[in-house]
Amino acid sequence: xxxxxxxxxxxxxxxxxxxxxxxxxxxxxxxxxxxxxxxxxxxxxxxxxxxxxxxxxxxxxxxxxxxxxxxxxxxxxxxxxxxxxxxxxxxxxxxxxxxxxxxxxxxxxxxxxxxxxxxxxxxxxxxxxxxxxxxxxxxxxxxxxxxxxxxxxxxxxxxxxxxxxxxxxxxxxxxxxxxxxxxxxxxxxxxxxxxxxxxxxxxxxxxxxxxxxxxxxxxxxxxxxxxxxxxxxxxxxxxxxxxxxxxxxxxxxxxxxxxxxxxxxxxxxxxxxxxxxxxxxxxxxxxxxxxxxxxxxxxxxxxxxxxxxxxxxxxxxxxxxxxxxxxxxxxxxxxxxxxxxxxxxxxxxxxxxxxxxxxxx
Length: 361
Ligand SMILES: Cc1ncc(COP(=O)(O)O)c(C=O)c1O
Hints:
Layout: H1 2-8, H2 15-27, E1 32-36, H3 39-50, E2 56-60, H4 65-73, E3 77-81, H5 92-98, E4 103-109, H6 119-129, E5 132-136, E6 144-145, E7 148-149, E8 156-160, E9 173-177, H7 180-190, H8 213-224, H9 226-244, E10 250-252, E11 259-260, E12 266-270, H10 276-287, H11 316-324, E13 325-328, H12 336-360
The chain binds pyridoxal-5'-phosphate.
Pyridoxal-5'-phosphate (PLP) binds near residues 38, 64, 66 and 162.
């Protein structure tokens, strides 16, 4: 497919991009999809189309830098909220606590590829107050709750195809929406704010947020493997669940049956007192097991650039879960033997840690 693009000379915003958009929309059961250069640009374009300039956008403090940065770049004011310890996502309670009369948009992040079972309650709060719900679905390709796919819960959603994600296009992002007008605006924004692809007036403050045909070709192929990738990842996660049930020192995040996670991340909470950095070091050096990156090791209000968005004790749950959780390795070709080796290694390292804790107390 890449060869075909090179041969026919259509290198950006061409037939492969349209095919990728259509296939992605179909897989996620949404009317429209617009391919862009990254998950970050997908978020910024959504915020620009919603007109967040000078208005508050509520986001969980436990998210990636880009969720907040996109709000700032679109001229909005990020307002942080704490998360639930059961889902690592916004809950109705943490959302209510963060809402002010200035709130225009709420962003729900499907953290680790898991859609919170409180999604409908969160949507109802937004609807009651006339606030727009946006999904940061950067982690959630193919995930669903109650038979409904990520990307169908909010007014619009932003997906990322960064290489670490469950599916990738190398670099790239996708906006999904049921709103035809938002779709049309997004098409203008992604290509320098031009009213039409071939020339035309610049009518919006857009940017070079296009997806190339070569990236779209990679994305299309990867999308066709998404379902098998999710099956493998869920098999590994089920094996981890079973093994961790009899392990002390670490509890997996419990995911209700109605929520079909894609297991971008397999999250488990360490008991208080177990030092994560030490545990990771020992797992790596003694057993050759590298845990994957956390979601997230530090909440946004602990990042120097966003420190002004929360004082020391503003978000106690996020502080706690960000400091204590680990993400076990999961990849889309993982074998049962590899998963078993991870849990045996974790069990061995944790056994040492829990004995040390017991001796201290
Ligand atoms: C929660 C979240 N939002 C947004 C993004 C931004 O996506 P990208 O890296 O494609 O710009 C990421 C990417 O890692 C993410 O994890």
